Amino acid sequence: MAAQPVCASGPGGSGELAAGVAMAVVVMKFGGTSVANVERIRNVCRHVKREVDAGNKVAVVVSAMSGATNQLVAWVREASLLHDAREYDAIVASGEQVTAGLTAIVLQSMGLQARSWQGWQIPVITDKAHGAARILDIKGETLRERLDQGEVAVVTGFQGIEPERNRIATLGRGGSDTSAVALAVALKADVCDIYTDVDGVYTTDPRIVPKAQRLPKVSYEEMLEMASLGSKVLQTRSVELAMLYRMRTRVLSSFVAPEAMQPFRLDGLEDIGTIVCDEDEIVEQQVVSGIAYAKDEAKITILKVADKPGIAARVFGPLAEANINVDMIVQNITPDGKFTDMTFTVQAAELPRTLEVLKSAKESIGYNDVMASADVVKVSVIGVGMRSHAGVAAQMFQALASKGINILAISTSEIKISVLIEAPYAELAVRSLHSLYGLDKD
Amino acid sequence: MAAQPVCASGPGGSGELAAGVAMAVVVMKFGGTSVANVERIRNVCRHVKREVDAGNKVAVVVSAMSGATNQLVAWVREASLLHDAREYDAIVASGEQVTAGLTAIVLQSMGLQARSWQGWQIPVITDKAHGAARILDIKGETLRERLDQGEVAVVTGFQGIEPERNRIATLGRGGSDTSAVALAVALKADVCDIYTDVDGVYTTDPRIVPKAQRLPKVSYEEMLEMASLGSKVLQTRSVELAMLYRMRTRVLSSFVAPEAMQPFRLDGLEDIGTIVCDEDEIVEQQVVSGIAYAKDEAKITILKVADKPGIAARVFGPLAEANINVDMIVQNITPDGKFTDMTFTVQAAELPRTLEVLKSAKESIGYNDVMASADVVKVSVIGVGMRSHAGVAAQMFQALASKGINILAISTSEIKISVLIEAPYAELAVRSLHSLYGLDKD
Fold first, then answer.
1. d(Cα B432, Cα B441) in Å, to the nearest integer?
2. Which end of chain A is more exposed for a tag (fewer CB within 10 A), N or C?
3. Does the predicted TM-score (pTM) go above 0.95?
4. Which CATH number is associated with domain A25-280?
């Protein structure tokens, strides 16, 4: 991919800003803990002011104040456990509305031009899947005009409008990251900065491995695997979008003093946070970039199913129909060759529904018994370097074996290897693999 | 107009919906205390269900959960004391959004068809006066179609959309009453029922006069005077609208057991709450219908201004420019005939600004000194019967004099007389006048 053209303010380039340094379009996203109260919103606005003062054009995407969405969801559940997703959306979307307005007011009080935008005002067009909607389009023209006039746009994250019924639709929990990346794409932004309560993406969870290191850069592909394999830093869908549109995305801490950070510049960035970018922008690529783990897995074993063609379809068909995602699958062969045991994993939250579906399909599948356990963990090693380096998996299995850790299931892709292990071994496994692949901080 | 038949349970009493009883369109408005939590919203929905079960077509208007708006306003003030009214509106409008969604969910859980509507979705068109906007138009066609299909419309009170900038505008505190009446007009409703925490309009405040009585009916004109003279039951603007469009409006308590009330019927209403209606629907009209009092008055006296033409303009011009409403005005003549003292009243909240305006206009007005007091109360007697009965004022002044109560200022209209008195005499004055005009309960 060609380097990005470094000219935003039109040809000629004379004028106020130093020659050659063009203004950038920056999208800045702040999560719930960063806007938890008015004092923190003030801090967020100082981050925004830093960018505006440097000549950047800024759109801000905000989440609801932390706790607000939980309160709203609790009211909805108290109203009815079976609720209309469209009403749920109208209710929970109000949280971001409040933050966006407060942010605009504080920015104005700092002398900046600013206004809040709700999803339906831009509009951010979504599909009909209320509660877990996907953004179909963002009509960014008006917003972009306002940015060009020097106004900061403060946009409600997590929501858009389903145009056919003219109703608010939300993107699901954590959807503000996705809103930010989608908006950055629509505005042709130079960067999408995701401010959060950690200062970047780490080689693994620093709470488990104190020697974990911040990754200055990580590729879209690796970030996508990390997000879907348990890292909570970015929402999976937002990374998919960033990857699809090659939108450079940074993960930064909002709790760093705003004035201690450099504003975004097209001609060079300081080494802060983590830049999610193209693989070939990363000069010294490690074979393994990170170790992820996910505790919300559940393992199910179906005992003694007939070992014949079509049996997998009979097991997994009903689960797919019930919208249950199956992850790892292992099939053992029992000695007599007629029957087999099948093991697979699902999200722990889906375990009760999964068991129900299997129970009602017992006749058509034909099995002896079902065993289930949520006391398992999926540990994954991730790295684009695996494509060109053999032996990563072998090293991994050997290391785990030498610690006496039993592997219950395995799944792989081009750039990751995941193993399912018993939960009590999770920390030991993560620490061992982190050392094994040379990720420990000196 | 013919007197209203006072028959609640219908003729003959055969069958569920007796022949000839048409379905009515009913707008039901519930204030903040009526929807303070999900349990109370459930109670509200039982009121709605009663109407739907009786065959009525129902639109519900809801306020924010009590306390919610205060929290939102507090955040706005913390963000900045000088805030953009458009952002304020975007923030505070979220309160009703939450209640509307929750109400729709509860109604659905009771087996009713329902959906929430935000001001911009209907749309409710307002002018540009953010924070105190006026409704210009309500496009009620879609809503009316939905009602005709048996769906309950749950509408956010207090807000609409300013179409030019496509931004949410609020009507000011208490604006949900106005939303309800305006919606009732747009839907050509048969009645606008305002549910509140009192069971109707009283001859005066029952907390001061235990002998106060509920008024079964009150005329638009009287209600308008009561609202603007201190009764908090209905918002003034909503009564103006009801009067303008002759929209029959009832004041009812939401805390009465929903099933203990009769549903609205076109052919007769039970004697419950207060009906605000045309004067000639009220058969036994009293000369005086009620006594109102307002504590939020402040009295200002400008001492020794020149007694010459144009002086009033020089005093009240600057106040009008500053958007300060002057209510009662008294001008005394001092012995030498050259100078005069001017006394007038403003809202107590406006007192500091009023004094500031007068101070900066001191040169152009030319006065000696200014005295101010917020320790005054305005007591008013109201009744359309005054038009045809002389002597009401004389009786009033005599009664107050006999109690030793000094009258500081007087203002009158065709159907009301207001006097300004010192605050400590307020209760005595109200009680005396309540007896004087025969309003005491037996």
1. 14
2. C
3. no
4. 3.40.1160.10
